[in-house]
């Protein structure tokens, strides 16, 4: 008797699509193992039979607002797929503008033209007020003024929101660089200028931005969609994503801890011992939390490590980090995640901060969710299950 079956057989047994099967892996406890020498997985047949035996029986109906439908990003063990196309494969040749247009379902040239959004008259004063603040806080404070200076932002048609999305991405890049106006040149070229501007660095940044564009329904995405559903412009809905970024329970909120760990690795003559000591003393390994549905490490992080090794494999910090990552994987079964690799890339190529790369890419996805959330025409209103004290009767 076969203990495992492949994905196609499992989906057929359950009468579901492959996409739905991937959601079952975590939510319904389907166990699997990797097929040696391939990227495929086999699924524990007993788990498939268990779920199959329950199909058709009464199940608790999902709460209103508990599940949201989307046509944007599918998460699989091989990485995210944007509208059916592999994000990792797209990163080989596409720019963030290309992928944004794909996610927004619009022609790239119709929204990423030469015209740029106007600057608010208060811009220099705002730069002075937010001097020294994080890029997220600067964006939260400045973007509403950019919205007000550009009346076309209030066009909430599909094409209008896409144009605003393009303006928003370019303004995010301008705010980080402290420029008075946004530029229309490719975003990865603009970013590379902050790190010396070499072709190979620009190409790596392009790959990072594409791979970071969207990752399904994280906390930031839920926040963005809920705000967008009320009918605000993308300038304001995307602010919801920035607002939760520093949250201690949010992946983006681990940036400071990841930075400290990388500094330890950089300063230590034995990077493996840094990892071993943290584990021996019961400390966490920030940047090593791998999100569902990745089983054997985050394929986005793995691909970017290969890309970084190709252009900066002899960089002292890369050498130490790679040794530490290998030790954590081989001895502890822990894998460096996408956020950790983003921070490593920023340091190795000489960017001022990782907080520029990842949120710039993710803005494209947040705009896509803003558009989809608003076009759904229903204000997001999850139903709460009250668990507090009940009224007393006489």
Automatic annotation (TrEMBL):
Protein name in the entry: citrate synthase (unknown stereospecificity)
Top-level taxon of origin: Bacteria
Keyword Transmembrane helix: no
Record key words, sorted: Transferase
EC annotation from Swiss-Prot or TrEMBL: 2.3.3.16
Pathway this chain belongs to: Carbohydrate metabolism; tricarboxylic acid cycle; isocitrate from oxaloacetate: step 1/2
Natural source organism: Sphingomonas oligophenolica
Pfam families membership: Citrate_synt
Family classification: Belongs to the citrate synthase family.
InterPro entries to which the protein is assigned, alphabetical: Citrate_synth-like_lrg_a-sub, Citrate_synth-like_sm_a-sub, Citrate_synthase, Citrate_synthase_sf
């Amino acid at each position: 008797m076969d203990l495992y079956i492949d994905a196609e057989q499992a989906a057929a047994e359950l009468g579901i699509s492959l996409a739905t099967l991937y959601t079952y892996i975590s939510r319904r406890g389907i166990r699997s193992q990797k097929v040696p020498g391939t990227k495929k997985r086999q699924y524990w047949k007993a788990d498939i039979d268990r779920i199959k035996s329950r199909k058709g029986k009464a199940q608790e109906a999902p709460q209103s607002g508990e599940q949201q439908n989307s046509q944007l990003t599918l998460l699989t063990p091989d990485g995210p797929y944007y509208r059916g196309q592999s994000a990792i494969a797209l990163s080989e040749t596409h720019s963030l503008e290309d992928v944004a247009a794909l996610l927004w379902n619009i022609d790239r040239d119709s929204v990423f033209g030469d015209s740029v959004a106007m600057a608010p008259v208060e811009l220099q004063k705002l730069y002075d007020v937010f001097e020294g603040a994080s890029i997220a806080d600067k964006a939260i404070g400045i973007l509403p003024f950019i919205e007000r200076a550009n009346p076309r932002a209030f066009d909430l048609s599909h094409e209008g929101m896409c144009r605003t999305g393009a303006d928003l991405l370019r303004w995010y890049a301008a705010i980080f660089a402290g420029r008075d106006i946004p530029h229309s040149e490719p975003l990865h070229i603009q970013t590379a200028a902050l790190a010396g501007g070499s072709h190979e660095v620009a190409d790596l940044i392009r790959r990072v931005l594409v791979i970071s564009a969207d990752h399904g329904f994280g906390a930031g995405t839920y926040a963005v969609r809920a705000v967008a559903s009320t009918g605000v412009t993308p300038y304001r809905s995307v602010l919801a994503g920035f607002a939760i970024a520093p949250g201690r329970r949010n992946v983006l909120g681990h940036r400071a801890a990841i930075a400290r760990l990388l500094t330890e690795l950089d300063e230590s003559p034995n990077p493996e011992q840094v990892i071993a000591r943290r584990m021996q003393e019961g400390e966490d390994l920030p940047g090593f939390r791998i999100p569902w549905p990745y089983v054997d490490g985050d394929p986005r992080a793995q691909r970017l490590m290969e890309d970084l090794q190709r252009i900066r494999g002899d960089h002292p910090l890369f050498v130490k980090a790679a040794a530490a990552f290998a030790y954590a994987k081989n001895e502890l079964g822990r894998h460096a995640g996408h956020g950790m690799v983003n921070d490593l890339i920023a340091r190795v190529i000489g960017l001022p901060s990782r907080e520029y790369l990842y949120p710039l890419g993710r803005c494209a996805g947040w705009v896509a969710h803003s558009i989809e959330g608003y076009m759904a025409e229903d204000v997001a209103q999850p139903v709460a299950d009250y668990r507090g004290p009940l009224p007393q009767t006489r």
